[in-house]
Task: structure prediction
Amino acid sequence: MPIVFVAASKLPTPFAIFNMHGFLDEDTGREHVALSLGEIANGEPVLGRLHSECLTGDALFSVRCDCGSQLEAALQAIASEGRGALLYLRQEGRGIGLLNKIRAYKLQDGGADTVEANERLGFDADQREYAICLPMLEHLGIKALRLMTNNPRKVIALVDMDIKVSERVPLHTGHNAHNHMYLATKANKLGHMIGNMHQGELA
Result:
């Protein structure tokens, strides 16, 4: 996986002063970022999150998803603990890109759910891949995570890469009237563990 480290700097935020690590995927040209705080390379499980880019939720304050709230909650949790890492992955719209995401939103405006919309556009329900995380985690010296996620696919992907997930930390935030169907679809069709919306538990 041609993910190369480029540079690191400080990143002051309202939550903490993080270290920001920049990575380049030489195959796709995509630029990914990891934020770290505290001593994370000592072998102890690290509180962390794999967060896929969501311009609408993360930067434009959209409430039709829970992404922005999850990003903020994850950074706050890491800051409160004084130790952790967040990988910010450029995989907008579950990997279909921003413009296709807008096309999918238009289909959702007409009644399709988030899975149906992606599939009508010719995509899989979720096209993200997490192999890009391995060289990033290796660079940071992280071998085990306490993973903040509701998505079992992320846990499975990390375990398949021999990254230990010592704990899954639920991240239930940002629920509102605009995203109830979206969250229910994630629970019922994609297996996300979202409180009483979820129909089963992770094995």
Observations:
- The first strand starts at residue 3 and ends at 12.
- The longest helix spans residues 67-81.
